[in-house]
Structure formats: C-alpha cells, structure tokens
Amino acid sequence: GAGVSQSPRYKVTKRGQDVALRCDPISGHVSLYWYRQALGQGPEFLTYFNYEAQQDKSGLPNDRFSAERPEGSISTLTIQRTEQRDSAMYRCASSLLATADTDTQYFGPGTRLTVL
Amino acid sequence: GENVEQHPSTLSVQEGDSAVIKCTYSDSASNYFPWYKQELGKRPQLIIDIRSNVGEKKDQRIAVTLNKTAKHFSLHITETQPEDSAVYFCAASMWTPLVFGKGTRLSVIA
After folding, report:
1. Which of A42, A58, A105, B44 could form a disulfide with B36 if both were Cys (CB 3.0 to 4.6 A apart)?
2. Do A102 and B32 touch (CB under 8 A)?
3. How far does the CA of residue B51 sit from the closest CA of chain A (Å)?
4. What is the per-residue pLDDT across A5-59, written as a single tens digit (0 to 9) for each?
C-alpha cells in the first residue's frame, strides 16, 4: 500500500514568509510524528499526535512553529515568519498503534525547506 | 530526557568483513531500540529493532544486541556488501517519541 507522503517535496521561501508543510500518513495509522533532520544528523523530534490530539509538542523550537491534525489523518506543520535557521529537512512519520515506544515508525520522504 | 550517543561516526570496511556500530542511552526506562538505515537522498528505513525484554535479535546478516545493565546496544552486520553502504541511526524510547543518535556513515569497499 501507499507509504507516508509529504508535500511539497521542496520549498524555497524568503525570510519572514509563512510556510505550511503537509503530511499524509499511512491509512489507518493512529500516531503521527514530525521530525527535523539537519544534514548529516539524526532526526530530531518536534511534535506528535495520537488521532487528532497533540500529545507532545516539547520539541517545537519556539512559538513560530505549530502543528495540527484536525481529522486525525493529514497533518500540517506551519512555520510563521521563517528564518534562515529554519532551513532543514522536515520529516513526518506514522505508526499504527497509539503507543509511541513500541511501534514501528515509517518515515515520509521529507520536505526540504530552504529559507533565503 | 533521553540522550543517545552513537559511535563511530564513520566506518569503512572491506566487502565481506563485519561492521559493528554501538550506541549508549541515558534513560534506564527506555525499552525500545530501533535501527534505521538511510541511503543518500532517501528516507530512513527500519532494518531491525529490539525491545528490552530481549537480549539479542537476528535477521539474516543483521543482528542487534542489548545490554540493559550497561545501557548500550549494538548493530552487527556480517558479510558486508556494497549495498550496505549508508548512514545508520540508532534510537531509543520509552512512552515518548524516538531519540536518535547522530548516525554512522558506513562505507563498504569492494
């Protein structure tokens, strides 16, 4: 079946603009995670949802970052007033069960964000 | 919170030799330890995982060992092949999303 998909795959924006990154998880997956991956580094946790409820947003760098999953499926990560330091690969992952610790997370292809 | 250290950061081996990557974690409550392989320009893919009630798990040429007392776990790849060349990430978690190590770039030289 279809894996996790993300759009856009590449986003170039100017400093100060808002961006919205979309994640479409595997159908039926309860948990959805957002990570940020710098070049040559491991994914760094941002936030995650079980169904439509945001369970943990402790990894969001500041209040310019927000995420939602209103219907428990597709999720959007929004970055307001983008800054050059926000440039990175943003990855989404999903897992079947609502227990984050024991279930396989499947990653999407990522959105490469470049802030000029 | 959890902290995961991964070593080495780069590893080169001759084709057919074994490769070992080691990770340590800080939170003794962590109970799930997956390993992901990431090829250049691709997404991370799970290759093997282990839970804290198991000391070792093997899948063909890949094995993972876990020492809960010492809080470290290792990935072992035997009979390495050029297609094993990639960046490998370990991770740990307990009722929280995954905390990843910084990765090991494995190069298998033919």
Report:
1. B44
2. yes
3. 8
4. 999 999 999 999 999 999 999 999 999 999 999 988 999 999 999 999 999 999 9
